[in-house]
Amino acid sequence: MLVTFKCHASPDVTMLENLAQYLLGIIGKRLGPRGVITHDELDAAIAKLEAAIATDKQERAEHEGHFHDGEDGHEPHEVPVGLAQRAYPFLDMLRAARKEQSDIVWGL
Fold it and tell me: Given 9, 14, 34, 80, which residue has the most CB atoms within 10 angstroms?
């Protein structure tokens, strides 16, 4: 199932339900049939999501040395998409909403 986040300050952001649930969990919200992130909650939400992205980037950098692409005896494989790539459209929406003091809603 898809979840679409809406805000007057930004284009809609649509994502799969499991990603929406994960990102909302990071910022301390639960995914329900309908919901809102108020403009008063945006500073904390942005800080939490930015911290999670920074942690993910650091962990990925530490594990990057464990990938053996091109080495003899090791099959090359793709590096999975990180949190930053999946979260940036949502983070951009959070920042735009904060700038214009707008709420973000879903399920309407």
Answer: 9
pLDDT tens, residue by residue, 12-57? 999 999 999 999 999 999 999 999 999 999 999 999 999 999 999 8
Dihedral class, residue 77 (left if φ above 0, else alpha if ψ from -120 to 50, else beta):
beta
**In whole angstroms, what is the distance from residue 37 CA to residue 28 CA?**
10
Can you say how many angstroms the Cα of residue 100 is from the centroid of all Cα atoms in its chain?
20
24 and 30 in contact (C-beta within 8 Å)?
yes
Q: Are 82 and 57 in contact (CB under 8 A)?
A: yes
Domain ranges of the chain: 2-65+80-106
Structure tokens at 20: 């929406």
Q: How far apart are the first and last CA of the chain?
A: 15
Please name which of 10, 41, 39, 12 lies closest in space to residue 28, comparing C-alpha atoms: 41
